[in-house]
Specification:
Blueprint: H1 6-11, H2 18-24, E1 32-34, E2 40-42, H3 44-49, E3 57-63, H4 73-86, E4 91-95, H5 100-104, E5 112-113, E6 116-119, H6 121-125, H7 131-151, E7 158-163, E8 167-169, E9 179-181, E10 192-194, E11 196-198, H8 203-210, H9 214-223, E12 225-229, E13 234-236, H10 243-250, E14 257-261, E15 266-269, H11 284-293, E16 296-300, H12 305-320, E17 326-331, H13 333-339, H14 352-371, E18 376-381, H15 388-400, E19 405-408, H16 410-413, H17 419-430, H18 446-456, E20 462-464, H19 467-481, E21 486-489, E22 509-518, E23 523-528, E24 547-548, E25 554-555
Parallel strand pairs: 3-16, 3-17, 4-15, 4-16, 8-11, 17-18, 18-19, 20-22, 21-23
Antiparallel strand pairs: 1-2, 2-14, 5-6, 6-14, 7-12, 9-10, 12-13, 14-15, 22-23, 24-25
Length: 558
């Protein structure tokens, strides 16, 4: 049996004018700022006008740890949003924008899949409405202004050895992780070691995604620590006088982007911090606005629940005053088999024993979500080769964990494949059983917060840090930053820092090799193991297969 590719399906979409999609949410054409016929930004006037309305129900879609077998979290998010509309609910989805780095690296795209996609797929995966370019520009403007300040006399007495603000670009490029800047003589400034992160790891991205409005955004940008003096006094972006110009560059990027699913249901696609090296959620302004416009809002958090959902709960919900009403945990039979020890080449053969062995990973995520006080249901994202016995094994395991697993066929059938899931999610969300609470209180020490996540979410025996890192955390606490949540930068593939340890491993520790203070975003980043804030391209990048065909259409995105 041959299947159409995602891009072929997206190309055949019967899109409606974006004004019609807005009308489903009672958004007037005056409050839409169109980018062509099929995408638009919503105005600040609309955002302000709905802020006093009651909130709809918030549903979070998360997943098991990702495997090469595929899980389909965004696909399930889109399918569930369509399914809720199919059963007569006023629902919309909120997802992140795609980064060019993984698009041309391993992923090839990030707009869902099959008949559960958001369109226009090509634009969403490429330049879209220019938000990421604006974030890159704002970040690098600050970089340029720091070096310019030093060049013209350094009135703030910045110690050039202690400039902590790096540069960014929206591409995977390992060669730029560590560089030497300002070579070439007196006219080019003072040589120093520098480097690049990927745009989605930028603190500017985090500031934009957590800001409540433009005023809040400018304050957050001004709070960014860019360097230190010789006596370790912090220098802020506002000291460089960069916060105003950065806000100007981000003025339009702050407004959520409205697009549609293949079934012409509304979707906000806005913001895009990675979940392994950043906080992994779409923007607060998109989510909070959606909750005023729809009765049910389906959003996702990146990678597995140990990263994306943990940060959604402990960072985004804490900062924005949000509380999810239900959680959907996405799993696949293929991923269960891979967690049970089956290699990718053998996933097509039925292996119930491997499915049962691999379910331990799913079970740990179910336990973790319950620890946040939120009811959860498992969505089994169906693949054509899944056997009835394998599906039954997953359902039986989930039932033994006190939850429920529902088979979903949205990839092949669109909303018709998620009706059962949609009905169950409505029951959970409307049932009033959610008693959400973050994992740790604000007043807990920074190291104890790191340890709480390592032990409570990852099930590690402890955290390994040297005295220098402990002293740095204590210093930040003394400076008034002890109340901040922590953002764990860790591999997405395992509960450990070893990407090859699948399942539900025990008997390990979490090494923290570096900590960074994101004072503007409002969290402390703990970099664990070998995780990189600037990824590299794989041996065979997706870019090798992305091209224009004879008809001028894009091929290779998937």
């Amino acid at each position: 049996m041959s299947f159409k590719s995602d891009i072929e399906i997206a190309r055949e979409a019967k899109k409606r004018p974006i004004q019609e999609i807005g009308a489903k949410l009672d958004i007037s054409t005056d409050d839409l700022l169109p980018y062509g016929h099929d995408k638009a930004k919503v105005s600040q006037n609309l955002i302000d006008s709905v802020k006093d309305r009651p909130n709809g129900k918030l549903i979070l879609v998360t997943a098991i740890n990702p495997t090469p077998a595929g899980e389909g979290k965004t696909t399930t998010t889109v399918g569930l949003g369509d399914g809720l509309n199919r059963i007569g609910k006023k629902a919309m989805i909120c997802i992140r924008e795609a980064s060019l780095g993984p698009c041309f690296g391993m992923k090839g795209g990030a707009a869902g899949g099959g008949y559960a996609q958001v369109v226009p797929m090509e634009e969403m995966n490429l330049h879209f409405t220019g938000d990421f370019h604006a974030i890159t520009s704002a970040h690098n403007l600050l970089s340029a202004m720091i070096d310019n300040h030093i060049y013209w006399g350094n009135a703030l007495e910045i110690d050039t050895r202690r400039v902590v603000w790096r540069r960014v670009m929206d591409m995977n490029d390992r060669a730029l992780r560590t560089i030497t800047a300002s070579l070439g003589g007196v006219a080019n400034g003072f040589p120093r070691e520098a480097g690049f992160d990927i745009t989605v790891a930028s603190e500017v991205m985090a500031c934009l995604c957590l800001a409540l409005n433009l005023e809040d955004l400018q304050k957050r940008l001004g709070d960014i620590i860019v360097a230190y003096t010789r006596d370790r006094r912090p220098i802020y972006a506002r000291d460089i006088k960069a916060d105003g110009a950065m806000t100007v560059l981000l003025k339009d990027a702050m407004q959520p982007n409205l697009v549609q699913t293949l079934e012409n249901n509304p979707a906000f696609v806005h913001g895009g911090p990675f979940a392994n090296i950043a906080h992994g959620c779409n923007s607060v302004i998109a989510t909070t606005t959606a909750l005023k416009l729809a009765d049910y809002v389906v959003t996702e958090a990146g990678f597995g629940a140990d990263l994306g959902a943990e940060k959604f709960m402990n960072i985004k919900c804490r900062k924005a005053g949000l509380a999810p009403d239900a959680v959907v945990i996405v799993a696949t039979v293929r991923a269960m088999k891979m967690n049970g020890g089956v290699v990718k080449a053998d996933l097509g053969a039925e292996n119930v024993a491997a499915v049962e062995a691999g379910c331990a990973n799913l079970g740990r995520h179910i336990e973790n979500i319950k620890d946040f006080g939120v009811p959860a249901v498992v969505a089994i994202n169906h693949f054509a080769g899944d056997s009835d016995a394998e599906v039954a094994a997953v359902k039986a395991y989930v039932e033994s964990q006190g939850s429920e697993a529902i088979l979903c066929k949205h990839w092949a059938n669109g909303s018709a494949g998620t009706e059962d899931l949609a009905k169950r999610v409505v029951e959970l969300a409307d049932g009033g059983t959610s008693d959400f609470k973050p994992l740790y209180p604000d007043e807990m020490s920074l190291f104890d917060k790191i340890e709480t996540i390592a032990k409570g979410i990852y099930r590690a025996d402890g955290v390994v840090v040297d005295k220098k890192i402990r002293d740095q955390l204590k210093q930040w606490e003394d400076q008034g930053y002890g109340h901040l949540p922590v953002c764990m930068a860790k591999t997405q593939y395992s509960f450990t820092t070893d990407p090859n340890r699948r399942g539900a491993p025990e008997g390990f520790s979490i090494p923290v090799r570096e900590v960074r203070l994101s004072a503007g975003a409002g969290f402390v980043v703990a970099i664990c193991g070998e995780i990189m804030t600037m990824p590299g391209l794989p041996r065979v990048p997706s870019a090798e297969a992305i091209m224009l065909n004879d008809a001028g259409q894009i091929e290779g995105l998937f």
